[in-house]
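Subject: Protein entry, chain in single-letter code together with its fold tokens

Area: Proteins and the way their chains fold up in space.

Attached in line: The record itself begins immediately under this heading.
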Amino acid sequence: MSAAQYIKELIAEKETLNPTRYTHAIRMLEDEIYRMRITDNDEKYSTAHNPSYPPPPIIYDERPRKKPEEEVVEMCEKLIIPVNKYPNYNFVGKILGPKGNTLRGIQASSKTKISILGRGSMRDREKEEELLKSKDSKYDHLKEPLHILIQVEAPKIEAHSGLATALGEMKKYMKPEHDKSPYQEEVVKMSEKVILPVKQYPKYNFVGKLLGPKGNILKNIQATSRTKITILGRGSTREKDKEEELLRGDDPKYRHLKEPLHVLILCEAPRSEAHARIATALNEINKYIEPENDNEYTRNNEPSDPVHLNFRGQALQAPILRVGIPPPGSIILSRPLSLGGRGWK
């Protein structure tokens, strides 16, 4: 079998693999393709032709891949404490813990702010009644049932993850220890929308990248996060002419075409689990919406900024580079530059 045919078969095999499930296999195939191309096109690099020289190393970039800049949001959740079901149980004391250490620990682990509010949240009942009768808006929460307020200000993924952690911990304190029945957390419907940066990268195929071969990437993200994910908005359909026709119509089914291209994440689950699922889906989707993380896009759109090392120690435009076998997730940038002169003819 010729080298060209072998490379062709390697590429065909690589394209059949799901990038999210077979990361290491794809990396190994890319390394083999790269090695064969060097062998096929530049025999002068081979030790068989130049036994006095070692084979050229693979050059790769160890820089962490750039993460998408996420919008910082403010989110909150309210958890009603079941005092009517357990009137004699000291919920506030249990949640606070010795010297308030239990609550402080939950806040630290979830990176959220947690407050116990509502009627019965103060130690001094007479003072609470007095404040309840006042018109100070600061104490309006005393008109509500006893509850926990969880607040967070962070990028969306961190915000959902923090709320999921805090709610998961708080569930442990929503019933007395002697009650062995499972805590029934409220089931909610939750959604998140991710706007795709098509204006910033007009030539990038966001839809194709998110769907993957035969839609396997999107299916895998849905299975992993246990959510329903849909690509909607202008540019979400294959037929542009048909999309323009639907855009002019009044069918509410296609109103989403009037919005920018986006990903809609939906889930229905207990409140803490819903936040965790949304966080997982957002984290996975973010891997496919930044072209800087895509080698092919970078190679096609930034030809004027190559990264090379040569064997003369020339300082070319390059980040910190390493020589040897690349670790998982590394980006292979290029092969070494050809050298003229003695010994390299």
Observations:
- The radius of gyration is 29 Å.
- Residues 72-184 form a domain with the Ribosomal Protein S8; Chain: A, domain 1 fold (CATH 3.30.1370.10).
- The first strand starts at residue 59 and ends at 61.
